[in-house]
Amino acid sequence: MKKLSLIEQLGFETSDKVVIFHIDDIGFSHASNLASFECLDFGVASCGSVIVPAPWFLEAASICRKNHNYDIGVHLTLTCEYDLYRWRALSSVKPDSGLLDSERSLWRTTEEAIANVAANAAEAEMRSQVQTALDSGIDVSHIDTHMGTVMDPKFLPSYLKIAREFNVVAFLPRISRDLLEARGLGNVAEVLLKMFKKLEDSGTPLIDHIIIDTMGDQPNKTEYYCKLFAEIEPGITHFLFHPAKMSPELKAITPDSASWRDLDYQAFTDPKIEEYVEKYNLKIIGYREIRDIIRKES
Hints:
The chain is of the alpha/beta class.
């Protein structure tokens, strides 16, 4: 008997356009918490992931404890990209771990983290972040990656190990050589393609498509997203965005992205977004549904 594909296991047809509308960076600021949970309450956004080492994580965890319907994962983080707004590792402050830069904070760039963080230290940090989220009352549905760092071949085995250990979904997109080269990962394309093929053959769920062209200003971001909706293909699509409410706090933390984060918030609380979800017959799910499938099979 042919094994059902993930989309079929979820109760859909292979011709359906199933979308995970995913909020990144919950907990990084008060502004992001206000916007993120309002977007989730509005209803098009279906889930999100929280940066556990970030300063406003405790507020996000408190909100989740009061409403267990929120579908929240952990945005596994080995970097902190901001100039004056920093966070540290949870698992260690030892210099030989490689986790911290000269300011005793996580590295600002993915390249620095990959070059300096020991693989075993990265695994310990990932584990600590997931465990802290669970201990804080979050019903963790999945793990994903801040700035793509833990998807590097150096850290990917630990990323998958953590998913198995906590029996949660690891966000894994189905990748192609062209996509990897377009993202500047051509040098590790062969390794990643072989690894992902092996994972899929073993039954690990992969997401068919990913839409990440959401970080930037647009003259009308609601219209921009509605046009992106028209391009969504059959299969399961991970559609990420980064809402935050405009405020002095947000401007001080990230002057370069404050405007477009606020536009994300405005777009995903705009009734027109709902209209276009219906127009293109998009089926919305979160990661909790996928987690339920993998836990049923384990």
